[in-house]
Amino acid sequence: xxxxxxxxxxxxxxxxxxxDATVLTSGFGSxxxxxxxPLALANSDRDLRLTLVSSGNVGDEIDVDLVESGxxxxxxxxxxxxxxxxxxxxxxxxxxxxxxxxIGDEVQYGGMVDPDVAIVEAVAVGEGWFVPSTxxxxxxxxxxxxxxxxxxxxxxxxxGLQSVHDIYRPDSPPNRTPIPLTDPGGRIGTSYVQFAPEKxxxxxxxxxxxxTYTFRxxxxxxxxxxxxxxxxxxxxxxxxxxxxxxxxxxxxxxSLGNALMGELRALDFGDRDVVYYGELIQxxxxxxxxxxxxxxxxxxxxxxxxxxQRRLFEDIERYAEDIVLRPADxxxxxxxxxxxGVVGVNSAIEFDIYGNVNSTHIRGKRMVNGIGGSADYNxxxxxxxxxxxxxxxxxxxxxxxxxxFHVDHTEHDxxxxxTEQGVADVRGCSPVERAERIIExxxxxxxxxxxxxxxxxxxxxxxxxxxxxxxxxxWYES
Amino acid sequence: xxxxxxxxxxxxxxxxxxxDATVLTSGFGSxxxxxxxPLALANSDRDLRLTLVSSGNVGDEIDVDLVESGxxxxxxxxxxxxxxxxxxxxxxxxxxxxxxxxIGDEVQYGGMVDPDVAIVEAVAVGEGWFVPSTxxxxxxxxxxxxxxxxxxxxxxxxxGLQSVHDIYRPDSPPNRTPIPLTDPGGRIGTSYVQFAPEKxxxxxxxxxxxxTYTFRxxxxxxxxxxxxxxxxxxxxxxxxxxxxxxxxxxxxxxSLGNALMGELRALDFGDRDVVYYGELIQxxxxxxxxxxxxxxxxxxxxxxxxxxQRRLFEDIERYAEDIVLRPADxxxxxxxxxxxGVVGVNSAIEFDIYGNVNSTHIRGKRMVNGIGGSADYNxxxxxxxxxxxxxxxxxxxxxxxxxxFHVDHTEHDxxxxxTEQGVADVRGCSPVERAERIIExxxxxxxxxxxxxxxxxxxxxxxxxxxxxxxxxxWYES
Lengths: 478, 478
Hints:
Two copies of one chain form a homodimer.
Chain A: E1 7-8, H1 10-16, E2 22-25, H2 36-43, E3 50-54, H3 60-68, E4 72-76, H4 82-89, E5 94-95, H5 103-108, E6 117-126, E7 129-132, H6 139-145, E8 148-154, E9 193-194, E10 200-206, H7 220-239, E11 246-251, H8 255-263, E12 273-277, E13 280-282, H9 283-290, E14 296-299, E15 301-303, H10 306-314, H11 316-319, E16 323-325, H12 328-331, H13 334-339, E17 343-346, E18 350-352, E19 357-358, E20 361-362, E21 366-367, H14 374-380, E22 383-387, E23 391-392, E24 397-398, E25 400-401, E26 416-418, E27 423-425, H15 431-442, H16 445-458, H17 469-474
Parallel strand pairs in A: 1-10, 2-3, 2-6, 3-4, 4-5, 6-8, 8-10, 11-12, 11-17, 12-14, 13-15, 14-16, 17-22, 18-25, 22-26
Antiparallel strand pairs in A: 6-7, 7-9, 18-19, 20-21, 23-24, 26-27
Helix pairs in contact in A: 1-2, 2-3, 3-4, 7-8, 8-9, 15-16
Protein name (chains A, B): Acetyl-CoA hydrolase
GO molecular function (chains A, B): acetate CoA-transferase activity; acetyl-CoA hydrolase activity
InterPro entries (chains A, B): AcetylCoA_hyd_C (IPR026888), AcetylCoA_hyd_C_sf (IPR038460), ActCoA_hydro (IPR046433), ActCoA_hydro_N (IPR003702), NagB/RpiA_transferase-like (IPR037171)
């Protein structure tokens, strides 16, 4: 802490926040979120009805403790605990799910909420600046949008984190200029976030640790998906001159994404530069970096295990040569994803035979976590790949369905589907051709004939996308 | 025609095209498409199985004559005649519907098709260059991607069209640099498209006219929607400082879009610059320009009536001071739509109570035209508005439904819904809150109580997005 800054404690800070305040927090990938003030809010006996906005998933102090205390009445835009999920599905919390790239603008310019206070985690703070901790997310936009600012100075995190940050602020529309990033590993900003000094109400010191990730060991399905993905990417690099010199990859967060990233080490990239332009750094990516196969990695946050975080922290200066953390409106920016010709690999809950993807709502109704940044990549990547196991529950539940009843990624968005069964490259296909390829190459053997029978029957219709909604709905009841 | 170029006639050109060729054509907004060679192909007695790719809608010579001749077996990515629509729904044509912004890249880099020949319309041609006629679309990408090139030199169109064109070619990913456009009315390219001279097989001269648009006169519903939209925009300009100096608008094509554009003249924009950053120039926009209320207009094509085209052609030099036509990968570029903070206004077939929008398939099955560029704007605009009449067929069919069975624009994309009944501003709303606002403000009186009863009943579920699929499906049968 540098200069003459207002020091306070978490309870005093919490007491100052209005009971119906709109609170913007740091946090993305369950790291870098404020912990002490949310916990003090959860432990207060006030009757709170907060609107809470984070740009990505946060950890237990917010998504468990604060939710369980009943303090949150409205929430944007990704939640990641079973407690928050249940509260969302009971609709005790009014939850609205937005794309990670746009939450900053929506808060700042779009009238989505009327922000009161921002609470951010930092590893260093001075007069008019702070260095974010383990995530960036939409923090710069949130700090500009809020009337008041609290900073949690977290001593658990190394100050060396400043060397991974590249904070660039896009101007306000309509005079926004093109983001001048031409290399994912390049730097166009500062290592700190600036703020108007008069906004700072208090600095709270803490040493609470992040809620780190736990990834399961790769399953047989994960490894089979990884092998199919490698085979497809290998052919594609051979086929398309656009990948002659370099390939830019992105992977969705989770055990599968982490496994896919790690298993990519077994792919022969030849002389190509392999670059990561994504949202989150996972353990698998550290493995790729350590193996020397990755030129650089750009993201907005980490989603690391406790072990992965320790690896990173212990060697932060070395990793900082190759890792850059950016605001989410840069890391997930549609125009930049387009520029770099990103190959995006994201998972989902299910996809249907025509290529519509549901990544948020079980049976179209029950929210899991949220859309996060998956649509930012699926929509704007040069090559959008949806990868997931063909069935759940030991083959009891098919993740390839006749019709999904919640669509997060449309039939216009996904190029390739990969399961442990195979690869359906649906580029250039009509909807019915997509269905044929998806059933043949991606469906689980237990469900293939039922899906084929559905398709054969509806094909009698004279419709571009033939459907039998009642029968498609029955699929979920069997 | 300048220099020593290979002149030919349409029949000779058509005879040279392989019977199973992949043909990329100019054309967007039913104008600027090649006419003579497609007609010669339609009139040939060869057994053709062509793959035809246009970046937007084309006119009758392709979407009626060539379709009726049975020559097209595969088609991307927007069709606009009842003949093409029927062939698509019979699945005689394998039709795949892509977003207008990305078709160029998908053809050139994505492996969507294996292009053979490009046929483009021009008003002037020389050694290695031509000036496009009434549309640009993805022509520059198509010309680069194809092995061979035919140019139709159309004498119906004024050479003055060169002054509206601004042809900028983004580099190839991953070394693509940011598009340096900072003002929608600015120029960053040339008035002509360049091509490798050895690709040019023949120049065909023609004087066939474009298939111009016919817009109906504004209906009472159109005028009521326009009044509701004006009222909303007026409040929004008052509320949000982002619109203090300028507002950037986009309108979807069609009679409603055209009417909304024209009726916007009645809105008091104060001292603000009013700028159009969209896909198509319609007659209503010429009215806005003539009234002096529009600073500039950027698009990729025209969608004008015969009268509108005459107005434009007769005064092309004056209009060219304010109108710029760009390639669709610039006009519809996600990053540029974001930069300018565009307010996008697009219509649809229907939307559901939770805010999902269907703009392509009647009852989720029967293709109408295609998605065009609507998703480019809906996804990336600062403010995305979906505007349409609440009912069809004199109030017989509701365009607000419990659940739409084809989703082109997801619950994450649309901010505001406008019908002749009112305005539902759903920013910051949870799905159930969206449903309440949409039913209250947008539904037609004949369907309001049925929709409310559906919502009341499903709300008994403990789900984030409560649904009764079977009952939602019945909605279409009553």
